[in-house]
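Q: Here's a chain of 241 amino acids. Please give me its 3D structure as tokens.
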Amino acid sequence: MHRFFAPDIATTLTLPEEESRHCVRVLRLVEGDEVEVIDGAGMLYHCRVAMAHSKHCAVEILSQEECPPHWGGKITLAVAPTKNLDRIEWMTEKCTEMGIDRITPLLCRHSERKVLKTERLHKILVAAMKQSLKAQLPQLDELTPIEDFLEQIADAQRFIAYCDESLPRSERRSLAQVYNPSSDAVVMIGPEGDFDPIEVEAALKAGFVPVALGESRLRTETAGLVAVSTMHAIKEHDKKI
């Protein structure tokens, strides 16, 4: 069944213009056809098209159900956007498909990208949410200076992945070893030029634990994806025990 995103569907009973156009002009749905509508806040609505208008398609809600995230504790990924925007778009798409609660683009001292427009990223998150059959849209923050982010963190496990010649890999525990799947977690990933030592020191003072993401040196976007996939793997393993 076709799925659409309408954050205010419960009150407006109408799909947004872009979703209406896709429903009526692209998919050729007509009055009486049944569709699914998600609000991005965890609710799934089973609906019937009441008026097939290409700008404001009206629906009738037949039933509704709550669809909470299947991964339990909240996952936040704070990552410095790459110079190549395609790479960070790919990462956010895949993280959304797996399941994530919040994505915070970080502005760091060594950041290659100092400006980030989030409109396109938001559309990518919406598409990934629908494609992966989720009802929860990840929170997408604006580009945030790392100093501000460190002051905003709520109670959660805190991990930072970075390259440091002074800290041998043998002395750094892997994320899989220290992550507790029953509670919220925040993982920070630096830019292509890595975190500045001053930023690392500030993160450690804020309670962040240095972690390794494997034996290989990873690109920023790959590191973000590995971190999220590792947490999901641990959660799935924990469910089966």
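Q: Can you summarize the key feature?
A: The chain has eight helices and eleven strands.
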